[in-house]
Design brief:
Layout (H helix, E strand, L loop, with lengths): L1 H13 L3 H27 L2 H16 L24 E9 L6 E10 L4 E2 L8 E7 L1 E6 L5 E4 L3 E4 L5 E5 L7 E10 L10
Antiparallel strand pairs: 1-2, 2-9, 3-8, 4-7, 4-9, 5-6, 5-8
Helix pairs in contact: 1-2
């Protein structure tokens, strides 16, 4: 089956004009290498983690269509309900004149009751200030912690943020995130 997919892709390349074929062959080669790497890691993954890998890949592929910090869809087989999505709004993005190539970005993130943010990373430093309610958050290598109004947490660049959620079933929560980002406000979030 895999061999059929690669031969179909190779056949499609033959339909491109010669000048464009080189560029498309390079893209196909990179995609084939990435597919092989994914398949090799899939084979090496213990059975109980394969569904988590599928869910992570599906979340990664669909995250562009969802708002930043939004909840992934519920697993159809879990019988669970979908956690509410968070919403976010960029409030400002200003260049840092004393740090060429960097900006400071502020973002308001609203967590409806029981909202959840899945695992992610940030390319730059992030400081979050809780404006309303309680946010439960966990970074890799640390225990989960609850942060209340006026409290802050810091994420060093590239740290795996395992989750953030509003544990309250009735009250919303809000935080103000301040990022040190690359020029032009981004990117703010990276996949886990």
């Amino acid at each position: 089956m895999i061999r059929e997919k690669f031969s179909t892709a190779a056949g499609a390349l033959k339909r491109f004009p010669a000048a464009a074929q080189t560029r498309h062959q390079k893209v196909a080669t990179v995609m084939a290498a990435a597919s092989l790497a994914f398949m090799a890691s899939w084979v090496a993954t213990p059975h109980h983690n394969k569904q988590a890998a599928v869910n992570w890949l599906a979340d990664l592929c669909t995250s562009a269509a969802r708002p930043m910090f939004s909840s992934p869809p519920a697993d159809e087989n879990s019988g669970g309900t979908v956690r509410p999505a968070t919403s976010s709004r960029i409030l400002s993005c200003e260049p840092l004149p004393h740090v060429p190539g960097k900006s400071i970005t502020t973002q308001l993130v609203v967590f409806p009751p029981l909202a959840f943010s899945a695992a992610h990373r940030h390319p730059g430093s992030v400081t979050a200030v809780i404006l309303e309610g309680t946010i439960r958050s966990q970074l890799a290598g640390t225990p989960p912690a609850d942060y209340r109004v006026g409290e802050t947490f810091f994420e060093p660049p590239g740290t795996l943020h395992l989750f953030a959620e509003n544990p309250d079933p009735t009250h919303p929560a809000k935080l103000l995130a301040t990022y040190v980002t690359d020029e032009n406000c981004g990117p703010l979030v990276l996949p886990p």
